[in-house]
Structure formats: structure tokens, C-alpha cells
Specification:
This protein has 316 residues and is of the alpha/beta class. The protein is 39% helix and 14% strand. The strands form two sheets. An eight-stranded parallel β-sheet has the order 3-10-9-8-7-6-5-4. It has a two-stranded antiparallel sheet with strand order 1-2. The chain is globular and about 50 Å long.
């Protein structure tokens, strides 16, 4: 396993982190979740990412049970807040009230005294940025979180909040969690450059485009049984990648990977990790075999010739 610094902070995270969006606490039961987390830890994974909204708290509860037998000081546990958790108008967003209430509930579900990284799951247009930034700073001062970050924030907001924190002497964000894969290269235009300047590292989610970049979905063929595209909850997230254009590009990725003696999965993940500002890719897994295959991507170096062909197939 490789370990990379998270932005300009002193915190190091495993280059592959285990996420729990649609797997732990949802598609994978408690027993399976515990096995996956233990196997990931034994393979060198230290970063475990979740959010309060994942299956309305069940993702955090399942992860909490899974890490209970692991050495807490060796883990980097990350969670998030922003999305509504009830019909209470204050139980959403990034107000001081919601942030402080949310982290206490997350800590209870996770069964831990603190999280290593607490993230603003989206930008909140309804709350003054100064209120959000000070609330996150306060959590660090109080010891509820060691670091804080953002997720899917645009470049201008990252620059704004960093300047605000520096102005007031507050703890500033150290990470951004964006959607990033060969199909979705949007962050390369401004977010990565701004993040480098402001000291944030990227924790990439959906690096395999909901599994489409593994090559499991074939043009003109029905999705394989048991895949996310056949799942009622998962289908709405993967269907954006299931058009012929995307599937044909995925097929080209499979062929290119074979030429370089790797799999499409390994190549897609290694491509994300080629970017120095990417601290980690967050992967999901339903079983040990899938997990270990994802982790093997850290050993893959993408040759310049291959990178050039990827740029042709998947232009920015």
C-alpha cells in the first residue's frame, strides 16, 4: 500500500480508501462488512469513508461495528454532513446548529470519540460561509474532528473558504471529495489547480464510474445479473454511464488495458492516482476478491504511451 499526504496537512492516508456509499451498511450485511473492513485493514488500508446520509445512518453504524475490533489510532475515519436526515428544517445544510448536532450523532453511530476527517458533503447556499467555516474550526478545537474538508465544492468556493480561514486564523480545509473518473474529468479544469494552491488534496469517489470502467457492462448486452444496474437503488446512479458511447469507450479501455497486461479496473484506478493532488481513490466492494483487485491498482504505473491513448479515448 502507498500512503500519501492529505493536502498540505501532516496526515497521511492510504492511496486506496474503502468507501461505504452503496455497500457497507446497505448491500453488504454486518458480517460481510466486518470481513471487508478487516481484510482492507490487513492489506494496509487506513482510510475508511462514510457519511451520515448513507442509508440514513446505517452506513455509519455498520462501519462503527466493523472497526470496533481494530486499533482506532491506526485508522483514518472520515464522515460527512449536509443532506437532510429528517423533515426538521434545521436537520440539513451547514448551519452551526446542524454541523454540531450532526457530528455528535455521527460519533454515536460510529462508536468513536472523534473522527479524523469531517467533511461538508456539498456547498450550502443558504448558510453564510463564515458560519460554516467557524463551526468546522470549532469542531477541530473541541477535538470532535482532527481535520475538516469539503466534497464537490467548486474551485471558487474552495478559494473563498481557504482565504476566509486564513484571515481569521481558523483551521482550514485539507481535502475535497470530488467525483472523478475517466468519463468525468471536470475537476482538472480548475478544482485541482485551486486545491493545490490552497493546500487541499482530493479524495476521489466513483473512480470506476459505478463499475462501468471495469468492463462488466457490454454495448448492446443486458447488464449482468446481480450488478448495480439491476439493483433498484443503484440503478439511478449507474445509468448515466450506460449509453452506447460510454460503453464503447469502456470496451476500448478493456482492450487497452490488456495490451499493457493489466485489467481495466487497475488501469482506471491507477489513472486517477497518477495525479499528485489525488491523495486517495475511494472504492466500494461487495466481496474480498473485488476488494483485493481494487487494492492491486497501487502497484500499477501507467506508461506515458498508455496515458496518451487514454487522453484520446477519454478527452478532458
Amino acid at each position: 500500500m502507498q500512503y500519501r499526504p492529505l493536502g498540505s496537512s501532516g496526515l497521511k492516508v492510504s492511496a486506496v480508501g474503502l468507501g461505504s456509499w452503496l455497500t457497507i451498511g446497505k448491500a453488504v450485511d454486518d458480517h460481510g462488512s466486518a470481513l471487508l473492513v478487516r481484510r482492507a485493514f490487513d492489506a494496509g488500508v487506513t482510510l475508511f469513508d462514510t457519511a451520515d446520509v448513507y442509508n440514513m445512518g446505517e452506513g455509519e453504524r455498520a462501519l462503527g461495528r466493523a472497526i470496533a475490533e481494530l486499533p482506532r489510532d491506526r485508522l483514518v475515519v472520515a464522515t460527512k454532513c449536509y443532506f437532510p436526515m429528517s423533515d426538521d428544517p434545521n436537520d440539513r445544510g451547514l448551519s452551526r446548529k446542524h454541523i454540531h448536532q450532526s457530528i455528535r450523532r455521527s460519533l454515536a453511530r460510529l462508536g468513536t470519540d472523534y473522527v479524523d476527517l469531517y467533511q461538508c458533503h456539498r456547498y450550502d447556499d443558504d448558510t453564510p460561509l463564515v458560519e460554516t467555516a467557524q463551526a468546522m474550526h470549532d469542531l477541530v478545537v473541541q477535538g470532535h474532528a482532527l481535520y475538516w474538508g469539503v466534497s464537490m465544492w467548486p474551485a471558487e468556493r474552495i478559494a473563498e473558504v481557504t482565504a476566509l480561514c486564513r484571515q481569521h486564523g481558523w483551521h482550514q480545509p485539507v481535502s475535497n471529495q470530488p467525483l472523478y473518473n475517466l468519463f468525468r474529468r471536470d475537476i482538472e479544469a480548475a478544482v485541482v489547480l485551486t486545491s493545490k494552491r490552497c493546500g487541499l488534496g482530493q479524495l476521489v469517489y466513483s473512480p470506476l464510474a459505478q463499475g462501468v470502467l471495469t468492463g462488466k457492462y457490454l454495448p448492446g448486452k443486458a447488464p449482468p445479473a446481480g450488478s448495480r444496474a439491476t439493483d433498484a437503488d443503484g440503478k439511478k446512479f449507474v445509468e448515466r454511464y450506460l449509453g452506447d458511447e460510454h460503453l464503447q469507450k469502456a470496451a476500448k479501455l478493456v482492450a487497452l488495458a490488456e495490451r499493457f497486461s493489466v485489467t481495466a479496473t487497475q488501469l482506471a484506478l491507477a489513472w486517477c492516482l497518477r495525479e499528485p493532488n489525488v491523495a486517495a481513490v475511494l472504492v466500494g466492494a461487495r466481496d474480498e476478491q473485488q476488494l483485493l483487485h481494487n487494492l492491486s491498482a497501487v502497484d500499477v504505473t501507467v506508461p506515458a504511451e498508455c496515458l496518451a491513448e487514454l487522453d484520446t479515448i477519454f478527452p478532458a
